[in-house]
């Protein structure tokens, strides 16, 4: 039976190695299971201490995408079937965010090959890397509003690096960003052709690195990727998101109630904006409130604080919010007709929203014993 994650050591700089992480569950679009997260975290910790590993490369198996997100169905089943009091939910989200934080603060350069679908938990891995590669097939999105969650995996930090109207729009509409827009917005660092992965790795193998000089290693990686980014053979994609900037800025102004009224009356002309409007209006109204509050809070917050609060919010969403119903409707029964707790954004009480940012007794107990859950 094949492993859900594969690890290799590839040559780099003639004397050193690149530690390669390959997500190997293409049937699920490499959705991150608890086992996958734990395996990657352990291997990265080992490679961090290895004096011959000069860089990390993270990729996904299969042509369709790098990673479609976290395997939230496992979280759903732990709550629906096992009634474990949220123990698995806490363990899953807490460990996933630990992995994202580890990559974000990793002392050695990390390259992420983000082809095809890069969604949710996949965005967490991509955005934590130093070098975030996209290709013509890439589609980046945070679709959590569709399952009663909110953009997590550090999105409270990295979405806030964008202009506010873009941050709100991507978080509220599950919009899929193409490679050109991703680079222009800073979500990606390099845009290369889909079929040059092996050539990039060959170039890195043939670089010259005398000693384990991480700054020199970063420079070598940057130079190689720059060469492929400037290729005349690279098909250019037109920016889609930015071509609608004025419309998006107008739609995303004010409170969540203002945004709801604007989106209701909005008549989009393009298919991408039609889909965005539909995703927002059919997504969880409770999640819409949580998304805006979390984004506002996240401005200027240190990364560790972001992950701590996301752990609290994600567990509360899975235990008491729309998460279980959203996952059921979209990923389990697949009837795509979730019965949200509230009919629309205007019906959601602000006191209910505030309660999701407060630790419950069960969450306090889970976090207190978090070390034993890892």
UniProtKB/TrEMBL annotation:
Residues 19-357 form the Enoyl-CoA hydratase/isomerase domain. Gene3D superfamilies: 2-enoyl-CoA Hydratase, Chain A, domain 1 (3.90.226.10). It comes from the Bacteria. It catalyses: 3-hydroxy-2-methylpropanoyl-CoA + H2O = 3-hydroxy-2-methylpropanoate + CoA + H(+). GO terms for molecular function: hydrolase activity. Its EC number is 3.1.2.4. Keywords: Hydrolase. The keyword Amino-acid biosynthesis does not apply. PANTHER family: 3-HYDROXYISOBUTYRYL-COA HYDROLASE, MITOCHONDRIAL, 3-HYDROXYISOBUTYRYL-COA HYDROLASE-RELATED. This is 3-hydroxyisobutyryl-CoA hydrolase.
């Amino acid at each position: 039976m094949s492993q859900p994650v594969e690890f290799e050591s590839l040559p780099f700089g003639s004397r050193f190695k690149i530690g390669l992480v390959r997500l190997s569950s293409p049937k699920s679009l490499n959705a991150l299971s608890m086992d996958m997260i734990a395996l990657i975290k352990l291997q990265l910790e080992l490679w961090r201490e290895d004096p011959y590993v000069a860089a990390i490369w993270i990729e996904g198996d299969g042509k369709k995408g790098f990673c479609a997100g976290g395997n939230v169905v496992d979280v759903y089943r732990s709550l629906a079937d096992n009634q474990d009091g949220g123990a698995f939910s806490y363990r899953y989200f807490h460990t996933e965010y630990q992995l994202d934080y580890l990559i974000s603060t990793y002392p050695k350069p990390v390259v992420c090959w983000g082809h095809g679908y890069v969604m949710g938990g996949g965005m967490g891995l991509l955005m934590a890397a130093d070098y975030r590669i996209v290709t013509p097939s890439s589609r980046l999105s945070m679709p959590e509003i569709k399952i009663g969650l909110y953009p997590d995996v550090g999105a409270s930090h990295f979405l806030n690096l964008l202009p506010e109207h873009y941050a709100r729009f991507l978080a509220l509409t599950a919009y899929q960003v193409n490679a050109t827009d991703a680079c222009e917005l800073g979500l990606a660092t390099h845009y290369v052709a889909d079929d040059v992965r092996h050539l990039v790795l060959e170039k890195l193998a043939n670089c010259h690195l005398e000693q384990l000089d991480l700054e020199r290693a970063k420079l070598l990686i940057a130079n190689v990727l720059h060469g492929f980014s400037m290729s005349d053979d690279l098909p250019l994609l037109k920016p889609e998101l930015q071509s609608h900037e004025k419309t998006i800025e107008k739609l995303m102004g004010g409170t969540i109630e203002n945004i709801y009224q604007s989106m209701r009356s909005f008549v989009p002309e393009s298919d991408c904006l039609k889909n965005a409007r539909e995703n927002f209006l059919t997504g969880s109204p409770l999640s819409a409130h949580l998304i805006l509050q979390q984004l506002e809070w996240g401005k200027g917050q240190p990364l560790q604080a972001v992950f701590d609060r996301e752990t609290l919010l994600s567990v509360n969403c899975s235990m008491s919010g729309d998460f279980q119903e959203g996952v059921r409707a979209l990923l389990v029964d697949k009837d795509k007709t979730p019965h949200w707790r509230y009919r629309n954004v205007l019906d959601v009480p602000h006191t209910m929203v505030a309660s999701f940012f407060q630790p419950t007794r069960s969450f306090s107990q889970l976090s207190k014993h978090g070390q034993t859950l890892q």
